[in-house]
Structure of Membrane-anchored protein:
Amino acid sequence: MSVTTNRPVSARGWLTKVPAITATFWVIKVLSTTIGETFADYLAVNVGLGPIVTDAIMFVLLATALVVQLRTRRYTPWIYWLCVVLVSIFGTQVTDLFTDTLGVPLAVSTLVFSVLLAVVFAIWYRQERTLAITSINTPRREGFYWAAILTTFALGTAAGDFATEALNLGFRNGALIFGSLLVATWIAFRLGAGQVLTFWIAYVITRPLGASLGDLLTQDKDLGGLALGASTTSLLFLVAIVVLVVREQMLVSRHGVVDKGAGPHGGHRQDRAWAGAAALAVAVAGFGLSMAHGSRSATDTQADVTQNTVTAGASGPAAARAVHPTTKLGNLSRFAVIVTDVKTKVTANDLVAAKTRVKDLEVAWDDAEAGLKPRDATRWHQLDDEIDAVLTALRAAHPVQADCASAVAGLMTTLNTFDGV
């Protein structure tokens, strides 16, 4: 596979439509991956749009952005990276749709997207005789490029989740492993491996790497994270992306198509300095905010548990909570507290209040997924299904108290059985 091609440009006046592959490129790519995942989850869970509505909104936004991108005739940083962020969101949602809604195993999704990416590459190479991103200078080549980008995001999501869940990696080990794979890919490139091959391998790897880094920042401290939360993490990453993209846009506006490997305006050394500064700023700000934010005190946590203890058949301050550490999920008290409140409201036949309260359970459970799921995927899935049953019962068009009570009781029993305090 050659890096360059001598085929004539079919669209008159077109210039390259993608950025130079430098340190800035990879930093923005990793940061945009995290924003894509956290923003999609925020819309689907926190805002309450659900996966189907979120998918529809993201599809419309992505289609609109791609139309603008395809109508440009040269690399325009703000629209290019907007497309990448939206592709990240939509690619993640496609994989989640397969896994969560359709019940397709992650192993199958990984295989399907791998085959699909191979098909895209095969057709692209057959038509253009190159897969080099330095030759994205015709409408057809750009179409192949964005098809490959979308597929790599979906594949990276599926493969990353599969590796994390199947191997019980967790986000900290995942960040180390995927980061090491990325470094190994760079070393292979420096030792003479093909530019095209190493680029696309790295592009897939940065998806699970970005997700692992995002989880490291967002997850609670008792799960091994820094407890920044999805909103703070997304805002932090977005600021870094905006700074780097604005710089790119200024360089392009002033000097046309910028070759960041030459000249005083965008040399490799200056580019690495900007990329390194952005990464360092994110790291320092993340750790600083984590230290300032702190975690809930043991006294407050114990007070909540004391006031909201749960057993398979009873709840309230007087109920002695049984502990059955049959899983590696750890302390599930935070969820038990919410379920206790929901049960109390359902028992009082206040289903409207129960429906409102159960939203807190949905958000808390989704936020903790990256930390809990790798510990015991089988038990996590069982609890996830039972939480879905509670949500379905309470959110029915005409909820029935008996159905809601049964679903909540089943969830409480499982929570007690699985709690590994």
Observations:
- The chain has 15 helices and no strands.
- Confidence is low (pLDDT under 50) at residues 1-13, 259-266, 295-325.
